[in-house]
Amino acid sequence: MAHEQRVFTRVPFGQAVRWQDANGHDGTGILNNVSRSGFSVLLKQYLRPGPAILFTFDDVRYADHSVELAAVTMWCKPVPNDPERFNAGFLVVHGEPQTLGAISEVFYAALAANAAGQPG
Fold it and tell me: Is residue 5 part of a domain?
């Protein structure tokens, strides 16, 4: 079995995030961690791997707006001993000019929160 190696450092980050899929379903979650290429989120429902989801980070600003990022659902699995909650991993879709700046702002906010000793 091949060992998956992460290219980017992941930083813990306990910020709330909102999401919406292409069918209009939406919800909220709590970030587990973030890197420059993606993030993982604790959710209250299962999200099928594959489709892109639009995430809004209300507490992180870029270009005077809340950060919005499209990300592809890479995996989603139940939290052990809590089948009503799910951990999911997302890969940021780098299709818009502002995407790199936006994910960088989320990453820097996570670094700042960790440096200050705060969860998010």
Answer: no
